[in-house]
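Quick start: what a row looks like.
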Amino acid sequence: MSSNPKVVSKVIFIIGIILLFVSLFMDWYYFQASDSEGNVVIIWSYHLFSDWQTTLPSHTFINELYRPKNASVPLIIPIIMIISLIIGVYGVITQDLEKKDHLSVLRKYAYTNVIVLFFAVFFILIFPSYYLISNELYYPFMSFNDVDLGVQFVYCMGTGYFMQIIAFILIFPYVLFYYQTIRTFEKTKQSPQGYIAQILDHVKEKIDLDRFIAEEKLILERSKSKPDKSHIQDNIKETEIDLIYHKFLESRKGS
């Protein structure tokens, strides 16, 4: 049984959104130093909501000496990102791109998805270059020996960062497709052909051909019996039209 491409793309997008959400609560960066015997003497990890953390006792002098400078991302950024993630998932689940009647609503969800994509780019590119390099923290990975201290330093991006990269790969195609589709719908409606079609959608009425034929038949019969044709249409009674109409329908059923 073949899978529905539309459903598959939505599932992939939602998986990417879930990864983005979980990544916000994972460690984003860490570095540590081990002595010649393999004992960890320095270890620090960065979390978006709790800044730098260490698993070593606070009284460890060398560990505190190497505590990184405050590189906290403003709290408002992950909060806005979480709100955008929730709205994006809700839009994908509840809205259908094939329904063009609610373009204004679909446009809002398209822009929300673009915001989510922007935040992913922020954490993948801007965060390392602005918050890490400025504090002399290497990325994505570096390891070297400090001969003077007799320890080996290891710098590495954390789980949250790599989850962001995977999530970006998963959500990017659907976000681009969603946005381009909305733009195409909007251009179609704004083009001369789309504008005319839109007007016709508003003014067109369902024409009852059978009733129209019945009325014309009655007019012809009246025209044969009355020479004054200028008042034929005005003298037609609704009840007579209905009578002819029903007889005409009955004759169609019998034929």
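That is the whole record. Residues 159-190 form the longest helix (32 residues). The mean pLDDT is 75.
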